[in-house]
Amino acid sequence: MKAPMTDLVQPIRHDWTLVEIKALFDLPFNDLLFQAQTTHRRYFDANAVQISTLLSIKTGACPEDCSYCPQSARYDTGLERERLLPLEQVRAAAMNAKANGASRFCMGAAWRNPTDKNLDKVIEMIGVVREQGLESCVTLGMLTREQTRKLKDAGLDYYNHNLDTSPDYYREIITTRTYQDRLDTLENVRAEDINVCCGGIIGMGEKPLDRAELLRQLANLPEHPQSVPINLLVQVENTPLYGTDKLDPIDFVRCIAVARVMMPKSVVRLSAGRTDMSEEMQALCFLAGANSIFYGELLLTTPNPEENVDSGLFDKLGIVANGEQESVSGDNAAA
Ligand code: SAM
Ligand code: DTB
Ligand code: SF4
User: Fold this and answer.
1) Phi/psi zone of residue 318: left (φ > 0), alpha (ψ -120 to 50 degrees), beta?
2) Mean of per-residue pLDDT scores for the chain
3) Residue 164, ligand 3, Cβ within 6 A
4) pLDDT tens digits, residue range 120-160?
5) Helix H segments across the chain?
6) 3, 30, 271, 297 - which has most CB atoms within 10 Å?
7) pLDDT digits (tens, 9 = 90+) for 22-49
8) Among the options 66, 198, 255, 285, which is catalytic?
9) Judging by DSSP bridges, how do beta strands 200-202 and 195-197 pair with one another?
10) What are phi and psi of 202, to 5 degrees?
């Protein structure tokens, strides 16, 4: 049967049902990729990928028990615990990221939530990042409305806070906070008009329905997140999820494609886990509508592809780095 040629590009919707999402996942692969690529081309340059660079500004000893995370104090992953980085170290890393072509600099802290004193230090860091002409993004755990206001005043561009998986599976992965805690922080960020970066992790042993439900949660937020990171679980020894059955790469690509179809104007980031992906798999992810990556040899604490490997892949695919990829208003209005 031929793929229907109508309704390929979905309007911006916040009323997705699981039945509809399951139908997208169940499409023949070529039909799904065609729909995703058609959607992608409606709103984006199909050969441009936005580049973000990550820096862990406070590493390890986190009180939370996220089963995937090497930074939880509960798992002996051999990670050196570090205090909040000095400002000059952040400046040097931001300058390096800028020189390597990044347009956004993302700083992550292994906190359940920041103290007000630590938040003031992070605010200084946002200042040095912005001085380099880079967009700023931070991920610091849960925030109060007052804290989001301070971050907005500091000129923060993006806040990363992932829903990670479906509400049901979340309870099996993390016990020290609730899904509603995550939704509350996202609401605080949105209320201060800071761009939302929110996605999840695939390959944690979740069922296909959990992946569909994660995407439903993301797309049915009051606004689609401007940026949607899709992480493949990085399995770290001594974390509870170490040894989980590996996800079929085709299922991962399908997830990227369904995210693109459901959130047409959001930037979809092919995030953690790329060292476990072949070049062909990454190429399929770009074809499915992924248009952002983390660039640089380290994610927060785990390896990312070497820079020359990534630039080689971009050259082979004719992909160019593009700092203008992310549109920045309600539901990413620029079209
Ligand atoms: N502590 C803050 C929090 O959890 O929101 C910010 C830092 S935390 C490391 C940021 C995100 O990294 C998590 O929400 C999760 O999605 C992702 N992450 C952590 N460990 C990961 C892993 N092993 N594989 C893939 N993604 C991971
Ligand atoms: C996101 O979704 N992925 C990044 C970023 N946001 C902060 C983090 C990936 C972390 C992978 C495990 C590590 O390096 O510690
Ligand atoms: Fe802590 Fe964030 Fe890791 Fe969870 S994901 S253990 S909150 S650093």
Assistant:
1) left
2) 92
3) no
4) 999 999 999 999 999 999 999 999 999 999 999 999 999 99
5) 18-25, 29-43, 87-99, 116-131, 145-153, 167-173, 179-191, 208-219, 249-262, 279-287, 307-317
6) 271
7) 999 999 999 999 999 999 999 999 999 9
8) 66
9) unpaired
10) -115, 145
Ligand 1 centroid – CA 69 distance (Å): 6
> Cα 107 from chain centroid?
13
Token pair listed for 322:
């593009």
Q: Which residue has the tokens 């785990």?
A: 302
| CA dist., res. 252 & res. 76, Å (int) | 29
Q: Pick the catalytic residue from 104, 211, 216, 269.
A: 269
Respond yes or no: is residue 69 known to be catalytic. yes
* Ligand 1 pocket: which of 118, 162, 165, 174 to mutate (most atoms within 8 A of CB): 162
* Bridge partner residues of 107 (DSSP): 55, 138
Q: How far is the CA of 210 from the centre of ligand 1 (A)?
A: 18
Report the pLDDT value the prediction gives residue 327, as an integer from 0 to 100: 44
How far apart are the C-alpha atoms of 277 and 141, rounded to whole Å?
28
- Report how far apart, in Å, the C-alpha atoms of 315 and of each of 4, 47, 168, 283, 294 are: 34, 11, 41, 12, 17
Which residue type, as a one-letter code, is found at position 89?
Q
234 ligand 3 Cβ < 6 A: no
Q: Are 111 and 141 spatial neighbours (Cβ–Cβ below 8 Å)? A: yes
**Shortest-distance Cα residue to atom 8 of ligand 3:** 110
Question: Residue 106 catalytic?
Answer: yes
The torsion angles phi and psi of 5, rounded to 5 degrees, stand at -90, -5
DSSP 3-state of 274 = helix
Compute the distance between CA of residue 30 and CA of residue 17 in angstroms, rounded to an integer.
23
Point out the ligand nearest to the CA of residue 182: 1
Kindly report the pTM of this predicted structure.
0.92
Is 255 annotated as catalytic?
no
Contact 276, 52 (CB under 8 A): no
Q: What percentage of residues in the chain have a pLDDT greater than 90?
A: 84
